[in-house]
Amino acid sequence: MLWSAKSLSKQLKEWTGQYGSIYRLFIGTTPMYVVSDVIKQFSSFRSPFGSRWRRQRHATNPTFSSAKLKLMSPLVSGRIEAMLNKISTMTTTQHKEINMYELYKRLTMDVICNRCVFGIDMDMQNDIHHPYLLKSAEVFKTDADHMLLMQFSNFIPSLARPLHDILFSTAEFRRRLIKATPVLSNFITELPRLWLINRVREVVNQRVKSSSNTKERVDDTADDHVAAKVLKFEELIPNIFLFMVAGDETTSTALSSRTFFSALDMRGPQVWSIIAHDFLAQDKSLSSPKGLNIIQPDVFSIHYDPDLWGSEDPNLFIPERHLVKSHAICINGIENVFN
């Protein structure tokens, strides 16, 4: 039933209405809890990748410190100014509706790829057919749960790792084949996700070549104390890819949504001075049987829960609701990216 659903989020919300805030279902033969009762101790979930994920998060968090973000502010401001100039030109000469979502997509990819990740000017705001834009959009159009390999691995979890290795080994062979014979790129198509990962790999390799000691510094993790603070070299590429696609889609969606509601709100810009504060609610714990390795938040139920967002209709744009402190994880903008 879950694989045939057109929208996973809407289907989970419907089942939450029937079965409550916590219920269990099976993805193939793999048990999964669906949760819309927000909690605060994610580290309580036992997973073979839990400690590794926490180590990588600990290593990457300093990258997004206030000081580092301030250093990037001029770069971001410059790209925003370019977008505003583009909008001004469009409204002056064309006098037609503007798809802000598409403009924000190009803006976020411009900032992430051109300035903050790759450091290469790709002119994405003017080149609407830039391959990075197209491949990024295709990544989110592809539902991995509907892929045959994913469904097969869910039915037989022991085959998940071998199937994963086969998929990426095949992709690596195709990448090297195209690199050796470029003309084959006209006949061999890479999956969007793998295409982006391969482009990230190329950029990382270029950076390594430009600094001969980079790889040694990254791989010098023999000391456990050092290893806990840095990413291993093979972890750089998937993390860069993750930040790229997650930051692109979520930021552009949030900006376009806010722009839409702002345009419809007749009370003026003063409503945007509202600042939401987070707090941790009372701890609620739940034990799961050994072997249960999937926890799926029901995002729609959380985002439209009147107990979390106030008595007003959660479907209405009422920014004043954020004057009341909400749970720290009431907003799950990129939860599906990490699951």
What are the defining features of this structure?
single chain, 339 residues, mainly alpha, Cytochrome p450, 2 domains, three-stranded mixed beta sheet, two-stranded parallel sheet, 5 strands, 54% helix, globular, disordered C terminus
| Helix proportion | 40-55%
Query: Which class best fits the helix and strand makeup?
Result: mainly alpha
Order of strands in the sheet with the most strands? Answer: 1-2-4
Give average pLDDT, whole number.
Answer: 73
Give the H and E element order: HEEHHHHHHHHHHEEHHEH
Distance linking N and C termini = 20 Å
What count of structural domains? 2
> Given this structure, which CATH class of the largest domain is correct?
Mainly Alpha
Q: Please outline the major beta sheet.
A: 3 strands, mixed
According to CATH, the homologous superfamily of the largest domain is: Cytochrome P450
Give me the CATH fold name of the largest domain. Answer: Cytochrome p450
β-strand number: 5
How many H/I helical runs?
14
- Radius of gyration in whole Å, from Cα? 22 Å
- The CATH architecture category of the largest domain equals Orthogonal Bundle
Percentage of β-strand residues: 5-15%
Low-confidence region ranges: 40-46, 218-225, 271-284, 335-339
Shape: globular
Family: Belongs to the cytochrome P450 family.
Protein name: Cytochrome P450
InterPro entries: Cyt_P450 (IPR001128), Cyt_P450_sf (IPR036396), Cytochrome_P450_3A (IPR050705)
Pfam family, one: p450
Could you characterize what this model shows?
The protein is mainly α. It has two domains: 100 residues, no CATH class; 180 residues, Cytochrome P450 (Cytochrome p450, Orthogonal Bundle). 54% of the residues lie in helices and 6% in strands. The chain is built from 14 helices and five strands. Strands 1-2-4 form a three-stranded mixed beta sheet. Strands 3-5 form a two-stranded parallel ribbon. Helix 5 crosses helix 8. InterPro entries: Cyt_P450 (IPR001128), Cyt_P450_sf (IPR036396), Cytochrome_P450_3A (IPR050705). This is Cytochrome P450. Belongs to the cytochrome P450 family. GO terms for molecular function: heme binding; iron ion binding; oxidoreductase activity, acting on paired donors, with incorporation or reduction of molecular oxygen; steroid hydroxylase activity. Pfam families: p450.
